[in-house]
């Protein structure tokens, strides 16, 4: 298990230059926009505008903080996301325009290269302890707020807000999450 502390996350400009993203984890390590297999990041969205276009990429978006975001897709469909909404998955190579509801938001963005890697993002509230089987290779646990302990096998880490644990699970090894926290579990699957 690797501990990815919030203060060590890498900051960089958006692909379209419209803002800044905070990269939590990427594979392969050090990969850029053109050659990542998977990527987990956060971004502050302070104004309305188009999403960056990523050919051959699938994306899941969740709101961490703020009053919400309305997405309008190229086919005319719309979706509204706020901090209580389930994470929303969609292709990152379609036209998407974003409109803020009431002030800036911070989002969680998970992207995987279509045909090679897929992913699943779950929003979980912890007040006590839960155990879940880790299916992803890897599985990441991101503490959004509060304090979260992550255990698997003999490994254990304690997370504060925006810290992340990256787990390379052994088959049949459960992950135990404990504490009082809002968190996201991100599972990466290779096709």
UniProtKB/TrEMBL annotation:
InterPro entries: RmlC-like_jellyroll, RmlC_Cupin_sf, Uncharacterised_HutD/Ves. Pfam families: HutD (PF05962). CDD domains: cupin_HutD_N. It comes from the Bacteria. PANTHER family: PROTEIN VES (PTHR37943). This is HutD-family protein. It comes from Phyllobacterium phragmitis. The lineage of its organism: Bacteria, Pseudomonadati, Pseudomonadota, Alphaproteobacteria, Hyphomicrobiales.
